[in-house]
Amino acid sequence: MDVFASKSAQKQSEKMFAPAHRVTTWLRERFQCQHTEMSRPITRDGETYRACVRCGARRPFNLNAWTMKGSYYFKASPVDPVPTEGKARPQTSRPGEIKTAA
Description:
The chain is α+β, with helices and mostly antiparallel strands. It has one helix at 2-31; strands at residues 42-44, 47-51, 58-62, 67-68. It is extended and about 75 Å long. 4% of the residues are buried.
């Protein structure tokens, strides 16, 4: 009897969230990049991929079969290290200020 109760609860849940899923899908299709313009295959550091010309998303590429495989991903960009406490930040010049050699 618990099996039937859980199935009916699941159906009710699906009905309740179906409109939200449809809206999310519609928004994603309209406003996210569809990756329709892809670059030629690029090989760097032993990795072969094609990149979306519009957004830069990458997708692995198989040179032997000449097909894309796997899902899209974005290359992590390097992050500047954050100064730790007690260490001074480097001095930067202000607009209009002229630095002289000390």
